[in-house]
Amino acid sequence: MIYLDHQATTPLAPEARAAMERWLGGPGSDTFGNPHSPHRVGRQADAAVELARERVAALFPAGGRVIFTGSATEALNLALRGNSAARAGQLTAISAIEHAAVHETAHDLPGPAHILPVDAAGLLDPEVPLPAKLGVLSVMQVNNEIGTIQPAARLYERARAAGALFVCDAVQAAGKLPIAPADMIAVSAHKFHGPKGIGALWVRDGVELAPLITGGGQEGGLRSGTLSPALCAGMGVAAELALTRMDEDGAHMDRLFARALELFAGWTLNGSPDQRYRGNLNLRREGVDVARLMSTARTVCFSAGSACASDSGKPSRVLAAIGLSPAQAKTSIRLGLGRYTTEAELEEAAALLSAAVAEQEPT
After folding, report:
1. What confidence tier does 313 reach under pLDDT thresholds 50, 70, 90?
2. Helix axes of 229-263 and 40-57: crossing angle, nearest 10 degrees
3. Alpha-carbon gap, residue 357 to 362, rounded angstroms
4. Does the pTM exceed 0.90?
5. Which residues carry out catalysis?
6. Which of the two ends of the chain, N or C, has the fewest CB atoms closer than 10 A to its terminal CB?
């Protein structure tokens, strides 16, 4: 099996697994404690959580705090629903290619949602006109489907100048690129070789939020519920490892991306070839039946679109936003490269996919 779907999820780093195992606990151990308990076992667990928080915080700019959540989707909901501007019914603006966690949430807020268009390369103009009476601007740093890198830093500046909050979905950027400045930033551990079931929201100092989940008042009153020291520890180590390896992993992606363009020379790249994270290749080829391709080349794990939307059967909203027709979108695939992907695996996958495409072509 060749795994090329790293935008959907990544394999757990061995270092993160080792960190988690200690805090899974069991009878006779002292590492199963509730981190919110005042006794020794609880304090040990709390120390593990706080160490993990420090490690995750290193991903972000200075001057903020990390709130652990169950996912990046939860973190984005907390940011978009919990801020004072949204609660007051002010306008929220988002790009046309935001993840469903932002797109659907923005349309469910009390105030209106405004969509900012992207160009054919999948890029938002950094000087795009912003609507009047803007309360929140939410733009992702790296798109999950086509890998384009948005001008998040400039948009943050413009949001501040407009008196609005800037929310950034950095799920596909965290641990791979330096995270852009924002007022609130959401990340997910399992996208950078950490465990599933945990994410985080970074909140700039001075930004006030109302909780979505109430109860015992954990996480500074913003996210009640008992934290898992094992998940926190795994995320913390994965974050630390990603920062340590960022240059090395980036160089690896550059090499794989260049080789992939050679191997898939007969395909068209969706999205900007330059302003993109190079671990993401969204490709299309006229006449390809993607469902049949996935069935024929079943030893290659890749995506027909965003993992969050691939079950809907609908053409990709992101590919439509860059001007692709429904037919073109349906001939597109996403190959996600990762830290542990080898060039030999990529070459074998390309051969299998090429053979599967050849079976579909008329003789």
Report:
1. low
2. 30
3. 10
4. yes
5. 308
6. C
